[in-house]
Amino acid sequence: MASALSAELVEVDADPEAFYALSLERGWGDGAPLLPPTDERVLALLAATPRPADEILGVLPPRHGVATVELAAINAAMAGVLPAAFPLVIAALEAISAPEFNAFALTTTTSSVFPMLIVNGPSRDELGIDYRAGCLGGAAGRGSMTIGRAVSLALRNVGGQRAGETSRTVFGQPARFGLCFGEWEERSPWPPLAQRRGFRPDQDVVTVHGGKGTFPLADVNNDDARDLAYTIAKCLAFPMNNWYLEPTGGSGQLVLALNPIWAARMGSAFPKLEALQAYLHEHAWQPLGLWRPANQEILRAKGRVDAADRVFLVERPEQLVPIVCGGLGSLHAVALTSFCESEMQSVAAQHREPGAGRARA
Amino acid sequence: MTAASVGQGRIRIRVPTARPPVVQGAPAFLLDRPIAGLRIGLRHEGSWRSWMLIVGEWEAFLRRDGALPVVVQTGERVGSEGERTRADVAKWAASVDCGISGLGTCGSCTSWSVHDAVTLERQGRPAIVAVTEEFAKHAGNMARHLGHPDLKLLVLPYPLEGRPEPELREIAALHYPAFLRLLGASGG
User: Fold this and answer.
1) Per the domain annotation, does A56 fall within a domain?
2) Residues whose CB is less than 8 angstroms from the CB of residue B138 and which lie 6 or more positions away in sequence, other chains included
3) CB-based contact (8 Å) between A28 and chain B?
4) pLDDT value at position B188?
5) Within 13 Å, how many C-alpha atoms sit on residue A251's CB side?
6) What residues of chain B lie within 8 A of the CB of A212, using their CB?
7) β-bridge mates for residue A217, sequence order
């Protein structure tokens, strides 16, 4: 069979252990087993996208590797991505390649930050995107696990990101294996994230967020939604939040994942999402005296301290981004804390066939 | 037989890595003259206190030696603040005869220190990136990835933070001659 693929071919024993060993030897993986990217697998993925194999999706730092659709497919094949889900991998890589995402810094930093993928749209169930119980880990949906991992592998193999070498991350984080989850749109009292960012309800959309980690929040005592939101806001403004290292609080976003029960309670008190964001912003600050003198001096020098000696976490309410997902335990939320110097990006997936992955090209 | 199946018990797979980009090494520059009368750039991010102290010391040394230090403090790299930072760095790079960009002592701060030194070198001016020992290799890699493999590195001890001020002043004094030497300054 003639192949339109251009990547180098390597022959290996068909025994699955042989390819796993080769991937470890060549540094292609994350330590866990991979599927062999045979032409059959790669071509099946390419058939699911209208994009040509040689189309360039972007240039991925730190090594400035050129990410083609074909290379995306090879890495997706290794991760076990289903063809119908491949357009979401492409969308994620395009989003990461946007200059304002700042992958140049994000892939080399000492921070634990990694692109976290949030999926909206009609194909979440069909593709196995986790958005209910255990959506940030443990739910084991094929779409979530393989799309996130494919993007992680592409950053490693195309961009050259490797911890301890090109990436200076001190700790890394579990999401570096890949983190992809959906929003439980049907349980949200507000428009879903992608629609707030200008996309249609019938589009599958991937939003990439430079998240430093999953910061857990819990409360069982505040029945009042405003009290709950107040307490959350104070937690978001923890004194060693990355935003307090920044020259301003004007860049980046924090994603606040609310469980559906809390979301419903918040939705009653704040029917418009903007009102909740304004309320969170209004209370997401700490008194200057909370910090020791060395921090106080720098915060003052950067102009971060207001006339009442308050240090606000962020400049604008819209930088705090609530979404709804997770199980129905009504006592938890998670903050996907911000690298700050990275602007969230969203890209709609382009499917070749309407209904295959449900959306349309 | 498909391209993926060859012989008994063997398969062919596609290599998942990008071919390394061809790096055309951009030239590096030397002053080849005394620094007196020159405008010498110093770049910091307003965050590493130790580096800001060293910059302050070098400002005084440069003035003592007849040069004019031009300090730029960079800000964020994305959004409207990012636009301002890019404009500030471009203006700084265009306004000096040579300069040093620092401090590379974390991952992203090294990457951006190298980036801004490269901005200066692309103006045809002698440029140095200041890095700590731990991040010197990373700085060299980033310079190469940006097409400037010969970008000069001034390597400072690691970690700089946590040291008392008198020790940092000693480090500033100790490395000042190397700073001038890397710029290619000749005896005045």
Assistant:
1) yes
2) A108, A166, A168, B104, B107, B110, B111, B131
3) yes
4) 60
5) 25
6) none
7) A333
Cα dihedral sign for A350, A353, A357, A359?
positive
Partner residue opposite B79 with nearest CB, options A1, A70, A343: A343
Which residues from B are below 8 Å from A298, CB to CB?
Answer: 46-47, 49
Note whether residue A13 is domain-resident. no
A75 touches chain B (CB under 8 A): yes
| Contact: B108, A3; criterion CB under 8 Å | no
The minimum CA-CA distance between A191 and chain B, rounded to whole Å, is 25
Q: At what angle do helices A273-283 and A225-236 cross, to 10 degrees?
A: 50
**What is the phi/psi pair of residue A208, to 5°?**
-105, 135
The answer to whether the CB atoms of B4 and A39 lie below 8 A apart is: yes
- Asked whether residue A2 carries a pLDDT value surpassing 60, the answer given is no
Interface residue B22 vs chain A (CB under 8 A): no
In the chain, the amino acid numbered A235 is C
ipTM higher than the 0.90 cut: yes
A258 within some domain? yes
Inspect the interface and report whether the beta carbons of B79 and A251 lie closer than 8 Å. Answer: yes
Tell me the C-alpha distance between A255 and B103, whole Å. Answer: 30
Instruction: Tell me which chain B residue has its CA closest to the CA of residue A74.
Output: B16
> Does A30 touch chain B if contact means CB atoms closer than 8 Å?
no
Q: What is the pLDDT of residues A37-74, one digit of tens each?
A: 999 999 999 999 999 999 999 999 999 999 999 999 99
Parent domain of A70: 38-348
Contacts of A130 (CB under 8 A, 6+ apart): A139, A140, A141, A143, A144, A181, A182
Q: Judge whether A250 lies within some domain.
A: yes
Give chain B's mean pLDDT: 93
> Quick check: B12 contacting A, CB < 8 Å?
yes
Nearest to B91 by CA among B70, B108, B109, B110: B70
Quick one: pLDDT at residue A355?
A: 61
What residue in A sits closest to B17 (Cα-Cα)? A157
B 121-140 → A contacts, CB under 8 A: 135, 138
Interchain contact, A102 vs B12, CB within 8 Å = no
Whole-structure pTM value = 0.93
Architecture of domain B39-183: 3-Layer(aba) Sandwich (3.40)
Q: How is residue B8 annotated by DSSP? A: T
For residue B55, which of B43, B47, B67, B37 has the smallest C-alpha distance? Answer: B43
